Amino acid sequence: DVYGNTSRYRFVVRGKKQLIPPIAQRDKYCFTWNKANYLKEPGLDLFIPQGLLYDNIALNYNAYKADSAALSFTYQLHDKKVPLHSYCDLQIGLLNMPVADSTKYYIVRINEKGKLISVGGEYEGGFVKARIRELGTYTAALDTIAPEIIPVNPQNWSRSGKIVYKIKEEETGIKSYRGTIDGVYALFGLNIMNDQLVYEIDTARVGQGVSHEIEIEVTDNCGNKTVLKDTFK
């Protein structure tokens, strides 16, 4: 204790040998960091080159069909997100193709909250192919909805000296955009924080007191395109 008094008690612990059962895991679901890893299941191909994993991992793999109209099975490569050192190749086979245009199909990752996050992809021979940077849950998706272009407070453009459009694209993301004023290219900048296209009015180029024609073209990563024609003074 605090004053240096000491007590001792002797006792014996007798242990019993206990068997530790091996993990019931099939070899093809056990990935090692220092080897190339390949997982092939019906409708799924996954290849992870050597050195992309940071540690060995026993995959908690599962595959299921969400409903009868699902484009593909949903593949749980692992029940937790596993980051990779670089990109690897993932292919998911399509069960249904409700749209003939193969460019409309892509792959999404389903996060822990159930949100769908596009990882892109291209269709080839019944599969959608994409490159992924983490192990998780993936499935195929379809994007046929073009981006939406919305003028933001056009009554204030002359006063603020800026032309602003809000871009709504909730599936595959924006691939390209282009703006013209009176048929001549205009440098619209994309503010990715609030998904806005902004043009700072050059009064030396854009005459004051007259009406001007604007044309905005926005295309998403599945080729869906919206063209908006507008006027301002």
Explain how this protein is built.
- The structure is a single chain.
- This protein has one helix spanning 157-160, and strands spanning 30-31, 37-41, 44-48, 57-58, 62-64, 74-76, 82-93, 105-110, 116-120, 122-124, 127-135, 137-142, 148-151, 162-168, 174-181, 184-186, 189-191, 196-200, 212-220, 225-232.
- A hairpin with a 4-residue loop joins β19 and β20 (225-232).
- With 233 residues, it is an all-beta fold.
- The termini are far apart.
- A 5-stranded antiparallel beta sheet has the order 2-3-7-11-10, with no helix packed on it. Strands 5-6-12-8-9 form a 5-stranded antiparallel beta sheet, with no helix packed on it. Strands 13-14-18-17 form a 4-stranded antiparallel beta sheet.
- The model has no long low-confidence stretch (mean pLDDT 93).
